[in-house]
Amino acid sequence: MKQMGRFSFMFVWSLFLTLCFFYPHSTSALLRRNYYAKICPNVESIVRNEVQKKLRQTFVTVPATIRLFFHDCFVQGCDASVIIQSTAKNKAEKDHPDNLSLAGDGFDTVIKAKAAVDANPRCRNKVSCADILAMATRDVIALSGGPSYAVELGRLDGLSSKVASVNGKLPQPTFKLNQLNSLFAAHGLTQTDMIALSGAHTVGFSHCDRFANRIYNFSRLTSEDPTVNRLYATQLRSMCPRNVDPRIAINMDPSSPNKFDNTYYKNLQQGKGLFTSDQILFTDTRSKPTVNTWANNPQAFQDAFVTAITKLGRVGVKTAKNGNIRRVCDVLN
């Protein structure tokens, strides 16, 4: 009997470890596609209408919203904590150096969509900012030519936002493949997921100081990173001359910057990845086959991207114990 008891304990413990390994984000089980069907049945159309209004004002809405979602999920989970404004007593996530380049149009999109949702009496104070950000992200992707997908909903908003929580949580433009894989794996995302999410740079932009190291004084032998297409490097230097205002923005996709497509991967094949962390996806033999596949097969890229961004949206989902629904997205209740 003692042996049976020990066997049962070991079996249960082994099963527990297995579940933890294969399902590192168990709270994702709380999410479902029809979460607001009876709570706020028109929420997705309300959010989409606001996104469309914002997009008519500026295309920056697209990359700004996507990047906001990514930066939010990678720090404390998908809980809209990145939107919180700092106060005299608390410096929030958005004021971390890695978040200072987030475009205001992403924040504005979520805040306006939240106001529109809450203007509906049936929906007031029933839809989280985290879910609105997830829906808005899906909408800007679809409206710019990317795939449309059924977004999982049911997130709650985080109860805190601290600048220190951002430290070491976001990928840097100088990262190599091992660093990228390690960072993404910490959130249950594979190398394939990482390469797919990097494809969002097809509509992104960056500032000169984020890639200057690749086009100026790379080494004693060359002024530029040898993995950069030489004509592309010359073009970048013309747009970002020495001592230029580092806040000048450059499209990450020089070919089709206003369309969510697979051109990002074609650019990598030509040495036109803006960051080291972009171009490494082609120069490293472990990731190069995936880049080549998606450069030639846009549908395969879109399918992989939907899988990856759905998984990203499950990271760190808050429950009633550690979350709520904010009345205003940029202020804690």
Keywords, separated by commas or semicolons:
333 residues; mainly alpha; Peroxidase, domain 1; Peroxidase, domain 2; 2 domains; two-stranded antiparallel sheet; two-stranded antiparallel ribbon; 12 helices
Strand share of the residues?
A: under 5%
Report the principal-axis shape. globular
Order of helices and strands: HHHHHEHHEHEHHHHE
Give unreliable regions as ranges.
6-26
State the name of the first-level CATH class of the largest domain: Mainly Alpha
Helix fraction by DSSP (H/I, runs of at least 4): 40-55%
Characterize the largest beta sheet: strand count, sense, and whether it forms a barrel: 2 strands, antiparallel
The N- to C-terminal Cα distance equals 54 Å
Domains counted in the coordinates: how many? 2
Oligomer: single chain
Binding site for substrate: 171
Protein name: Peroxidase
Binding site for Ca(2+) 1: 72, 75, 77, 79, 81, 93
Signal peptide: 1-29
Characterization of the model:
- With 333 residues, the protein is mostly helical.
- The chain has two domains: 43-169 and 313-324, Peroxidase, domain 1, CATH 1.10.520.10; 177-312, Orthogonal Bundle (Peroxidase, domain 2).
- The chain is 44% helix and 3% strand.
- The chain has a two-stranded antiparallel ribbon with strand order 1-4. The protein has a two-stranded antiparallel ribbon with strand order 2-3.
- The termini are far apart.
